[in-house]
Task: structure prediction
Amino acid sequence: MIEIRRIEATDPLYRQECALRERVLLSNVGLDMASFQEAFPGIESRFEHFVAVFDHPQGERVIGCALLLSNYPEPGVGKLMQMAVDEQRQGEGIGRRLVIALEERAFGELGLQELFCHAREGVYEFYGRLGWAIDSEEFSEVGIPHRRMAIRAER
Ligand SMILES: CC(C)(COP(=O)(O)OP(=O)(O)OC[C@H]1O[C@@H](n2cnc3c(N)ncnc32)[C@H](O)[C@@H]1OP(=O)(O)O)[C@@H](O)C(=O)NCCC(=O)NCCS
Result:
């Protein structure tokens, strides 16, 4: 069974989340958690962490994550970052469930009006299928092409 959960950085699962981020996202662009924190100073402590947890017989395993930076860069707006699903578990709908949980939190309890992300080339369609729209030209970030994609709260 897979559960989507919001955790604090004090949760024992946070270490697994960091390991997943390093393996699936950061190592591809020559970063690790330390250099990520240097590239985005002060950001790690501001994240809300959404993780997909697999109830493995030998202990819970984090197999996906998505992070929310709310009221960034201005009040009412939030940024989705560090979207990653374990290589062995991609294509099972876990990424979709993580984004939906993050949206529910952002547009529900937090009352944000817009969410955006910097989507990597090759995953525009993933966000597009969830109703997010491209709203920028291509730009380079951490050495690879990205576009800004966004979704607004339903009125
Ligand atoms: C991109 C990623 C988060 C998607 O998570 P996932 O769990 O594999 O995606 P899901 O199974 O929830 O897919 C949801 C839908 O998007 C589609 N989709 C997922 N990844 C896609 C891709 N790269 N290109 C096109 N469509 C994609 C799926 O086919 C599915 O379509 P459906 O509406 O027909 O069901 C995951 O593949 C991943 O971690 N990739 C490597 C890291 C990365 O690139 N992160 C994004 C950084 S911006």
Observations:
- Residues 24-25, 83-85, 90-96, 119-120, 122-123, 125-126, 129 surround coenzyme A (CB under 6 Å).
